[in-house]
Each structure stands twice: as structure tokens, then as C-alpha cells.
Amino acid sequence: MKKAGIFSATVLAAALTTPVMAQLDVEEQIEKRQAAFQFAAWNMGKIKAQAVDESVAYDADQMQAAANAVAAVANSGLGALFGPGTGMDQNDNTKLKPDFFDEPDKAREVAINFAQQATKLKEVAATGDKAALASQFSEVGKACKACHDRYRAE
Hey, what's the signal peptide range on this chain (predicted)? Predict the structure, then answer.
């Protein structure tokens, strides 16, 4: 049931934000999705520093806030910012490979996995368990890497 809820939330978010794509030009779509991913990466960096590298003192409240931010980005309906013309074959301001548009089912699968793993990160962070958070951080990282490896140019 929980997986169905995550999937439903992701589909609903995409459906509700689809009209946004019609309002944003190609450059705005690219700019906004890059900003969203940079924000998620910044928050992932905070989790890495505290729960994985232990280079910064662990603060459970900060970790929960960071995980909530990553989950919010992952479940925000980012799919609406991947409209036609936003790939690197048609725009120099992105590293999004055209394969993304050629494989919509695979791209959707990768995006859903990111949303699921980020949602689980949020749930784990709420427990305050540093080791569990570090473990789930790794899973979110794998989800990010799966997309980068397949759809992001160097």
C-alpha cells in the first residue's frame, strides 16, 4: 500500500504540475529543474557530512530537515520541467541526453525510484537513527547515479 501511495502521489504531482510546463519556456524549465537538483544536492551534502563522513557533528533535527527537502524535491512533479526542447540536442544549457525522451518508460521508472528512495530517506531521518540514515543516503545516491549514468552527459 505504501508503494502505491508514493506512486499515486508522484503521478498526482506530475498531473498537477503539467500545466506549469505550458507556462514556462524551455530556458525556464531547464533553469528551474537545475535549481531543484542543486537544492537537493546541497541537502544531500549536509546528510553526507553528518551521517556518512561524520565531519560535522550530527544533529538529528538538521538531518530531518535536509531529508525532508530532498523528498520534497523528488516528489515535486519535476517531470513537468522536462518538456520538448530541454535536451542537450536542442539546447546548450543542459546535459540532459536525448535518450531521456526516447525512453519515457525507463525515465519514468528511474524518476519513481528516486522519489521512493527520497521518501524513505525522509522516513528514516525521522527516526533519528544515524546508521540507518547513512544506509538510506546510499540508496538515494544510487537512485541519483542511475539517472546520471543513463541520462546526463559528462
Answer: 1-22
